[in-house]
Specification:
This protein is mainly α and about 180 residues long. The protein has nine helices and no strands. Helix content is about 80%, strand content about 0%. The protein is elongated, with a radius of gyration of 18 Å.
Length: about 180
């Protein structure tokens, strides 16, 4: 029974990712989740009390995976400037990932305080992994520099997600150049 519930929950989360990446937050509705998973609508409520609860669980499941991918990219980089570049490039590379598109869609929507806090905490964890490299570069306030660097990344992500006139590779190059000049001096 527990294994079945776990599989159903995973199927619901996968369906939520698909709905969010295909249609944004408006698409994340319990009837659509039920249809995608073959469950009755009332059964969806047995797993999640609200759309915000789905969002919170997606963040708990997906943000650590992305952070681990960014950390791995940074670990293979040689020296602080290369780590900064890897931090930016890996996040922009993940924009095409369905999990990333889902969280970008939900982070732009109106969510309850709990869901917003989960997203904020997850982003805080992502920012924390670059602080050490920025400290090694001599920044007096590496946490502040990390938050500003993440702002550059977030702006590039939005630009890519909006389907800007520039191609994603050009956006990534511009973001990397801005990050390296801005934080590496």
């Amino acid at each position: 029974m527990a294994e079945h519930r776990s599989m159903q929950r995973a199927a619901l989360l996968d369906a939520a990712r698909t709905l969010l990446s295909e249609g944004g937050t408006e698409a994340l509705a319990f009837p659509a989740l039920a249809e995608r998973t073959g469950l009755a609508r009332s059964s969806v409520y047995e797993y999640f009390r609200s759309r915000a609860a789905v969002v919170e669980e997606l963040c708990e499941a997906d943000f650590p995976v992305w952070a681990a991918e960014v950390e791995a990219a940074m670990a293979s980089a040689d020296g602080p400037p290369a780590k900064v570049e890897a931090y930016v490039r890996k996040q922009l590379e993940l924009v095409g990932d369905r999990r990333h598109r889902a969280v970008v869609a939900i982070s732009a929507s109106e969510l309850d305080a709990g869901a917003r806090e989960k997203i904020r905490a997850a982003h805080g964890g992502l920012v924390a992994i670059i602080v050490e490299a920025l400290g090694e570069l001599g920044h007096e306030q590496p946490r502040l520099a990390a938050m500003l660097l993440q702002g550059v990344v977030d702006a590039a992500v939005r630009r890519i997600e909006l389907g800007a006139a520039e191609d994603p590779a050009s956006i990534a190059e511009a973001a990397v150049a801005m990050a390296l000049r801005g934080v590496c001096g």
